[in-house]
């Protein structure tokens, strides 16, 4: 459904003093990373203070960070960055970066070698 446009001769119904134009704040990556480090340190202090139930969640965060790193590297590779460019910034070798975050083939499973119930023949 389309709505008719406001005629040019009719003024806007928005009151200017009530709707200030807020400046857009650009968040730099370094500032954002520092914020994340502070949050993670605070969370680890909370766990260390006796919140044993949260250790599982904290360990899962490490998995999420690994997945996010893999997605970021995949995106960088899509932009044309080489494994050497990525590895240099991570302080590892090109081969190490490629082995850790490169495309890994799906494991090959031979379903013909097992019985219906999953046991070996």
Description:
By secondary structure, this protein is mainly alpha-helical. The chain is built from 4 helices and no strands. It has helices at residues 29-48, 54-78, 83-90, 94-101. Helix 3 packs across helix 4 (94-101). The longest helix is centred in the middle third of the chain and has 25 residues, at 54-78. It is flat and about 65 Å long. 2% of the residues are buried. The model has no long low-confidence stretch (mean pLDDT 79).
How would you summarize this macromolecular structure in one to three sentences?
The protein is mostly helical. The protein has helices at residues 29-48, 54-78, 83-90, 94-101. The chain is flat.
